[in-house]
Amino acid sequence: xxxxxPPLTANGPIFIVGYIHTGTSLLKSMLRRDPSLFAAAGxxxxxxxxxxxxxxxxxxxxxQVFRDFVTLIVALAYLGxxxxxxxxxxxxxxxxxxxxxxxxGLVTAVQAAAAAVPADQxxxxxxxxxxxxxxxxxxxxxxxxKTPEHVYFLQQILSVRPDARVIELVRDPRAALASRKxxxxxxxxxxxxxxEQVSPDRSTNFxxxxxxxxxxxxxxxxxxxxxxxPGRVLSVRYEDMVARPEETIRHIGRFLDVPFxxxxxxxxxxxxxxxxxANAADGISKAAVDRWKQSLSPQEIYVCQTALRRExxxxxxxxxxxxxxxxxxxxxxxGRSAVHLVARLGKRRPAGIDQRRGDTVQRVYRxxxxxxxxxK
Length: 376
What we know:
With 376 residues, this protein is of the alpha/beta class. It has helices spanning 24-31, 50-56, 63-79, 81-86, 100-114, 122-137, 154-160, 173-183, 187-196, 208-228, 238-243, 245-256, 272-275, 292-295, 298-307, 309-314, 323-346, 355-371, and strands spanning 14-18, 37-39, 142-146, 165-170, 233-237. It has a five-stranded parallel β-sheet, sandwiched between helices. The chain is globular.
């Protein structure tokens, strides 16, 4: 059902979302050059982890619990989720350039604003209330947050912040899959993970069918948000952003009420993709647009195109010929997908997984079981 939304204002927060590896970091790097915007330094993953936070900070009527939760949100804004949650002994208020008096004032202001929020929405609302105060303390007009996975939580985000505007980045699903496949083993990610002291299980980190359906879920989620919150979500193709950057960023700026600045286009390399580009000094390159043609096998392309035929047509991505070999070998890819599906289903369900995330995964698994002929 379509939600009633207040008139658009020029000061509401900005969320950048999209399936992973769709150019969200590039767009954030462009927009954060506007000095009136306070940009969260890292990906907060706040709404993705909200269920866990509700349990961890259950009693917000306890002043210390409330203060601790505000401290965490400040850390999320400045450090991102990994450092904020896993390295709590490595930061204090000085890390955020805040004095005790400033932080006390921030907590007081947030408490006053939170008092008007229904109790069942208070945890979710606190993120925006803290970001509002950090924006003010930094002398900015509005704030920006980029977490790609928040695309799955847009209904919740826009319910609690109906003044927000969302940019959804959409990228050719074959390119998104190729990027996942590449980053599973590349040296850049190895170094990044070593620095951050994380050790993900890569054995099923890339799967053409699973990842295709997760891409579809992101598209469906943003479509639902556009329908239920008219005028709040703008979809932008990554390919348009790198092919016609000034035209695209001006279009985005009109939607956000952010005036165009030439420095929006003066970005350096953002990640491994742009670093390898010929014009990496600018950070905006078309080099990665068609790289999937070399990175994915014909059978992987066939599986992706078959699973996402309707969505690819909707966004103007033409199917590529794969030859007889791609069709004949596709069952091998599906066989590996079945193995990966069993492996993932066998893993213990994380404690406190968000209902929205759980529903998303379950829909993906149901689609897979039908595709693989496990159930009708």
